[in-house]
Design brief:
Elements lengths: L21 E6 L10 H10 L3 E7 L9 E8 L3 E2 L2 E2 L6 E2 L6 E7 L2 E6 L5 E6 L4 E4 L4 E6 L6 E8 L4 E2 L1 H6 L3 E6 L2 E6 L6 H6 L1
Antiparallel strand pairs: 1-2, 2-3, 3-12, 4-5, 6-13, 7-10, 7-12, 8-9, 8-11, 14-15
The protein binds 5-phospho-D-arabinohydroxamic acid and zinc ion.
Length: about 200
């Protein structure tokens, strides 16, 4: 961990940071239950385990005064009709936010709150997205053959809650229909009231 102010470069076209502490790779097997088309997942896994996205980040203490930051790279592709995406999560400390700055590619940030509100914002190079406190978030890559690359910054004490999204996914899915992205309802999703009665 650095003990003096530091800089790093994110040179195009690949935007891999000039230095970093951690490099995480997430493959299809880690997102198995998240894609709507289970048969497409099984068919792809029978051929291998494709790399869906990577994260490069810097080691900082997980305390409120710190800002955790790094680069997220979602590779292009689809699982069935659904575009490649990140697992997505709530922050464990729900009242923490995040800034994303898109460096490359075309995609969407799919978001929702525990109360069932949802939002989908487009990502393209130069666009900054502020994810409000309480909003779960997932990056989706709709580019035909380009990575979606973002710089992210969030409070050190945020933590991650993956379980809620793993259970039912997001309220909205991003699918390709006739060659263009469409936002559709996730049949697996339940409203807070439905969940309480389940
Ligand atoms: C980002 C994400 C990153 C990977 O740093 O962690 O894009 O997505 P998943 O964490 O959903 O696999 C972030 O939102 N941090 O809080
Ligand atoms: Zn986050």
């Amino acid at each position: 961990m650095q003990d003096a102010p530091y800089t790093f470069e994110v040179p195009g076209p690949h935007f891999v940071p000039s230095h970093y502490d951690n490099h995480l790779e997430r493959r299809l097997s880690a997102l198995k239950g998240q894609f709507a088309d289970a048969a497409a997942v099984e068919a792809m896994l029978a051929q291998g385990d494709p790399l869906l996205y990577e994260v490069y980040d810097f080691e900082r203490p997980h305390v409120p005064g710190e800002l955790l930051h790094g680069i997220s790279i979602v590779h292009p592709g689809k699982v069935g009709a659904e575009y490649n995406m990140t697992k997505g999560h709530y922050h464990q400390v729900l009242e923490t936010s995040e800034v994303y700055y898109c460096l490359k590619g075309q995609g969407f940030m799919v978001m929702e709150t525990p109360e069932g509100e949802w939002a989908v914002e487009e990502l393209h190079p130069g666009r900054v997205l502020y994810v409000l406190p309480r909003w779960a978030h997932r990056t989706v890559n709709t580019s035909p053959n380009e990575d979606v690359i973002t710089l992210f910054i969030y409070p050190g004490h945020s933590g991650h809650d993956y379980g809620t999204i793993e259970q039912q996914g997001f309220r909205k899915l991003v699918l390709e229909e006739n060659g263009v992205p469409v936002i559709v309802d996730n049949p697996r999703w339940q409203s807070p009231a439905q969940r309480a009665n389940a």
